[in-house]
Amino acid sequence: MRRMSRESEERTEPDELPDYAERVLAVAERIPPGRVMTYGDVAEWLAEELDPQAPPVAGGGGRGVGGPRQVGRVMALYGSAVPWWRVVRADGALLPGHERRALARYRAEGTPLREAARARPAPESEPADGADGPGTARRGAGRGRGAARSGGALPRVDMRRARWDGNPPPPGDRA
Questions:
Q1: C-alpha gyration radius of the chain
Q2: Would you state the pLDDT for residue 169?
Q3: What is the pLDDT at residue 161?
Q4: Is the per-residue pLDDT at 61 higher than 90?
Q5: Would you tell me the crossing angle of helices 68-78 and 39-50 to the nearest 10 degrees?
Q6: Cβ distance 38 to 163 under 8 Å?
Q7: Which residues pair with 114 in a beta bridge?
Q8: CA-CA-CA-CA torsion for 169, 173, 174, 175, nearest 10 degrees?
Q9: Which residues touch 72 (CB under 8 Å, ≥6 apart)?
Q10: Average pLDDT, whole number, for the chain?
């Protein structure tokens, strides 16, 4: 008798996304060019959308629907279909393994950045800009390997100026 792993039980059909994943991706699509939301911001947005009266759950899990880690997991598995570069870490650091593509998109959209004292080249293992981003489940794109090799620093998103609160931006606003 073959046992099914927990992972195989949770798999969905290729065209069928879990409800929470669909909601995370819908929020990512709403973020205007030049703006960003953190993983935690997205989790809070979804929690309030579900039940604005529910009290927050201790430990950063929003209101019981998922926290920043769950949002990050959704973006890692399914995020290539949406503007993934607009969902960021709270410190504004560029997504490891996708630095060059994210930076090009931030600059094209006019996203406010805090330039580093010395910019480092992107890791050689990163492919040229294309459809692949988070959600393509690239293996071996380890955290920070490029930083250790190069000794330099990349710019970060200026969270004070680029963070989007979910309200429509004023006319002509470019972050």
A1: 17
A2: 67
A3: 96
A4: no
A5: 110
A6: yes
A7: 156
A8: -60
A9: 39
A10: 76
Q: Say whether pLDDT at 84 is over 70.
A: yes
If you average pLDDT over residues 109-120, what whole number do you get? 80
Tokens 């598995």, located at residue: 77
Distance of alpha carbon 7 from alpha carbon 11, whole angstroms: 6
pLDDT given for residue 147 in this prediction: 44
| Phi, psi dihedrals of residue 80, rounded to the nearest 5° | -65, -15
Encode the chain in three state secondary structure.
Answer: CCCCCHHHHHCCCCCCCCHHHHHHHHHHHHCCCCCEEEHHHHHHHHHHHHCCCCCCCCCCCCCCCCCHHHHHHHHHHHHHHCCHHHEECCCCCCCCCCHHHHHHHHHHHCCCEECCCCCCCCCCCCCCCCCCCCCCCCCCCCCCHHHHHHCCCCCEECHHHHECCCCCCCCCCCC
**Which token pair is 48?**
């309030």
**pLDDT tens, 121-148?**
555 555 554 455 666 544 434 444 444 4
pLDDT value at position 149? 40
Structure tokens that stand for 160 in this block: 């004070």
**Distance between CA atoms of residues 47 and 41, nearest Å:** 10
